[in-house]
Amino acid sequence: MTDSKRLRIAVQKSGRLSDDSIALLKAIGVKLSIRDRLLIAHSTNEKIDLLRVRDDDIPGLVMDGVVDLGFIGENELEEKMLERKASGKPADYEVLRRLDYGGCRLSIAVPNEMPYAGVSSLEGKRVATTYPFLLERYFIEQNINAKAVMLTGSVEVAPRAGVADAICDLVSTGATLEANGLEEKEVIFRSKAVLIQRKDSELSDEKQALIERLAPRIDGVLLAKE
Ligand code: ATP
Ligand code: ZN
């Protein structure tokens, strides 16, 4: 169980952000004993509980005030913020620190054989993505009439499967795109991991003091790695 006096931090249970986020907590002196299957992990030396969840859930947990802090990729954070604003849900948060891992870009890629002469080539096309709000915002900015088709997985096979004409997905090396006969054309968002917190006006003095003690240690760890 969690105790409301303990600082609650959401972290991705298993994925690309998990190890680096846990390593950062350990590097700033938070001792943790994590058991693989469990949703909750307690710190043995600080008043901190970890909530281990899917990264998709982290922005909402912070914005709804269920947790105090969360480690999340800016791509997921921005997408969820737009989604929540669109449905009238609370979408406030503060970025406590920008971090040095989880770097990637959200890009539009098209099949090698598709003629492409710039964004206007996407006019009237269907683009598969897990980030429909970021993609729609980009289409509006670019004045393009195209359709975002939401897929939660296997986005890169959508063109071959005839589900979409192009895709918009996260890229780091580009190897997955290449393996699927796709070419990266437009970067629409650049992302890194961030540590976010709920609006500080909602935090107790005790929790705020703990955050103020730990945050400078993050700066120390980031600086030492430069
Ligand atoms: P979950 O099961 O938690 O929902 P997921 O499959 O959505 O996991 P991951 O693939 O673990 O998520 O990616 C989590 C985050 O890692 C991404 O949202 C992004 O911020 C970051 N990331 C960094 N590089 C990449 C990459 N090459 N591909 C995908 N995500 C990346
Ligand atoms: Zn996810």
UniProtKB/TrEMBL annotation:
One of its GO terms (cellular component) is cytoplasm. Pathway: Amino-acid biosynthesis; L-histidine biosynthesis; L-histidine from 5-phospho-alpha-D-ribose 1-diphosphate: step 1/9. It comes from the Bacteria. The keyword ATP-binding applies. Keywords: Amino-acid biosynthesis, ATP-binding, Cytoplasm, Glycosyltransferase, Histidine biosynthesis, Magnesium, Metal-binding, Nucleotide-binding, Transferase. GO terms for biological process: L-histidine biosynthetic process. It catalyses: 1-(5-phospho-beta-D-ribosyl)-ATP + diphosphate = 5-phospho-alpha-D-ribose 1-diphosphate + ATP. Residues 54-219 form the ATP phosphoribosyltransferase catalytic domain. Its cofactor is Mg(2+). Signal peptide: none annotated. GO terms for molecular function: ATP binding; ATP phosphoribosyltransferase activity; magnesium ion binding. Its main location: cytoplasm. Feedback inhibited by histidine. Its EC number is 2.4.2.17. The keyword Ribosomal protein does not apply. It is found in: Cytoplasm. Belongs to the ATP phosphoribosyltransferase family. Long subfamily. Catalyzes the condensation of ATP and 5-phosphoribose 1-diphosphate to form N'-(5'-phosphoribosyl)-ATP (PR-ATP). Has a crucial role in the pathway because the rate of histidine biosynthesis seems to be controlled primarily by regulation of HisG enzymatic activity. This is ATP phosphoribosyltransferase. It comes from Alteromonas halophila. The gene is hisG. The chain holds residues 1 to 226 of 300 of the full protein.
